[in-house]
Amino acid sequence: MNEKSKLTRRDFLKVSALGAAGAVLMPSALAAAPKSAKKKSSANDTIGIGFIGLGQQAMHLLAGFLTIDGVRVLAGCDVYDVKRARFEKRVKKYYAEHGQKCNVDLYEDYQDLLARDDIDAVVIATPDHQHALIAIAACRAGKDIYLEKPLTLTIYEGQQLRKAVREHCRILQVGSQQRSDAEFIHAANLVREGELGRIELIKVHVGGSPTPYT
């Protein structure tokens, strides 16, 4: 593959990561994509995707990635067989409904998934404490990454991940739609500009906690 086609792949992947949840999370991301990224990809320009961590958030992201032109979901990894079976069923169902052949592979160990040459990028939606370790391993394996929040748990982990991304020239996108989506930016600006008057009390729910933090 020549250098020009590699750049096209990378540009496409960057846009794909920004629109990882498709019409569910970020409906405007692909609309803003450069024309080169929207064109139908050839077979040699298809981005192979692997999912690491197959819980509910991964299923949410999967619904978006499956619809992105030029992206092919090839594999999934989780330690729980029930989650692997659910992932496999949804991927096969989508491709069957769209008249496409499907061969999705399942793994218990993420290192086995990262070892595959046909996987260009990974979606990491594991429990938070595994984010940095797996993302750094993905960088070293030459994979680009869509990583669920939080990016890492500590400053040191963040420093090491940044180092790995730069050292291995990877693309890393973090799922922080509540900082990048237009509606959230608009709401924040309304508060900053005083359009809602003086804000005296803020209640925040963290991690589904039934008791808001004030």
Descriptive tags:
single chain, 214 residues, alpha/beta, 6-stranded parallel β-sheet, disordered N terminus
Q: What does this molecule look like?
A:
By secondary structure, the chain is α/β, with parallel strands linked by helices. It is 44% helix and 14% strand. The chain has helices at residues 3-18, 22-25, 35-38, 56-65, 81-97, 110-114, 131-140, 155-167, 177-180, 182-192, and strands spanning 47-52, 71-77, 105-107, 121-124, 144-148, 172-175. It has a 6-stranded parallel β-sheet with strand order 3-2-1-4-5-6, with helices on both faces. Strand 2, helix 5 (81-97) and strand 3 (105-107) form a beta-alpha-beta unit. The longest helix is centred in the middle third of the chain and has 17 residues, at 81-97. It starts with a helix and ends in a 22-residue tail after the last helix. Residues 1-8 and 14-42 have low confidence and may be disordered.
Structural class: alpha/beta
The residue fraction in helices comes out at: 40-55%
Radius of gyration: 18 Å
Termini distance?
55 Å
Number of strands: 6
Question: What's the helix and strand layout?
Answer:
Layout: H1 3-18, H2 22-25, H3 35-38, E1 47-52, H4 56-65, E2 71-77, H5 81-97, E3 105-107, H6 110-114, E4 121-124, H7 131-140, E5 144-148, H8 155-167, E6 172-175, H9 177-180, H10 182-192
Parallel strand pairs: 1-2, 1-4, 2-3, 4-5, 5-6
Helix pairs in contact: 7-8
